[in-house]
Amino acid sequence: MTTTLPLVPKGKDAQDAVCCAPIARQPLGESEAAELAALLKAVADPVRLRLLSMIGSHAGGEACVCDLTDAFDLTAPTISHHLKVLRTAGLIGSERRGTWVYYWVIPAQVARLGALFTPLATG
Amino acid sequence: MTTTLPLVPKGKDAQDAVCCAPIARQPLGESEAAELAALLKAVADPVRLRLLSMIGSHAGGEACVCDLTDAFDLTAPTISHHLKVLRTAGLIGSERRGTWVYYWVIPAQVARLGALFTPLATG
Fold first, then answer.
1. How sure is the predictor about B23, in pLDDT bands with cuts at 50, 70 and 90?
2. What is the pTM of this model?
3. How far is it, in rounded angstroms, from Cα A48 to Cα A42?
4. Which residues form the HTH arsR-type domain (chains A, B) (predicted)?
């Protein structure tokens, strides 16, 4: 699979583009805004952003909690709290296998965040 | 200009796709995570999400503060506080003209949020 970076347009094109990003296309309703703000709060934390990126980029697409704790100067319960916030927001899934709990990223929920702020493709 | 919604893939394709979203491609460093978390905190609020969407979708691409207050059951100073948070995060610009302050969305900063969570286009 080949990939290309999303185009970030400039000047007049940028103005056209932002018109079409869902966040700037039409006013958000109260309930939709509340739901999206809760999802954004789940990722609006440096430790949780790092955990999400570590889980997503881990070999095999999943990470054991034992792979995650060493990178942080935080206690295991604190790491667990942050993982629970990500899981409650539907951004990661988890499963216990033997001694350890394993985590993986839920792509659709991550993509939902992206789609909110991404100018729609022009065609 | 015609538009198409970003494709949110499922199953095996979804796993391929999330591998390529910047948030899940490689572990974020501490300073990058701190900076992105601050930007996300600016939008992780229902009032600020609604303000951003109202400004972006307003006719002419900019909105007077007088266009924004009626939709909320909030005082003018509270609305001003939320607008200041968005402006400080670089998500909107503003300019006083006569009696009113006008606001517009900064597309590149909005697109930066989107790019973090968006699977790279496949080609």
1. confident
2. 0.80
3. 7
4. 28-123
